[in-house]
Amino acid sequence: MTQLRSRSIIPDQLTGHALNPRVSPWSVVVPEATTNLITNPSFETEIGPNWTVNGTASAGRVSNYAAIGAYSLNVTATSNGTGALYVTGSNTTAGVIYTASFWARGYKDIRVTFFSTFGQVSSPIMTLTQEWRRFSFTAAWLGGSGRNLYIIQAGSGTSNF
Predict the structure, then answer these.
(1) Structural domains in the chain, sorted by start
(2) Which candidate, 145, 101, 148, 92, places its Cα nearest to that of 121?
(3) Which of 21, 28, 58, 125 has the fewest CB atoms in 10 Å of its CB?
(4) Whole-prediction pTM value?
(5) pLDDT class for 4, splitting at 50, 70, 90?
(6) Any bridge partners for residue 91, and if so which?
């Protein structure tokens, strides 16, 4: 056994240990039950009317890259401007904290923005790599109409979501 501090003892083998913080350094995290406000989040069906691409971007569902399921959304910004993907119609409430969580890969930096007529709240810049990574952004919704979740890509290039 290895002793850490005077109160914690970590055995060489951790089998058979109770899940008790006073006895074991291990614990079980039970995720909070959530509701996904975005329909078709893994793009297993064709892109619906609630998804919009604007700026210098185009988008299409592809099967050659996928983090979850068989498909992903391929977003390509065609010039050195900004391309954005956004989803509308989310059932949100002012002052409530929401989390946008997604898998992405690509060549460019992105930013997530909660946008409404009352203003916007944006994430720090998130740097994509060629490996799928999970990203998330949590903020309080400001309220108002025009409920949109934007994923904004800076510069030309291709990303998958």
Answers:
(1) 1-30 (no CATH), 51-160 (2.60.120.260)
(2) 148
(3) 28
(4) 0.73
(5) very low
(6) none
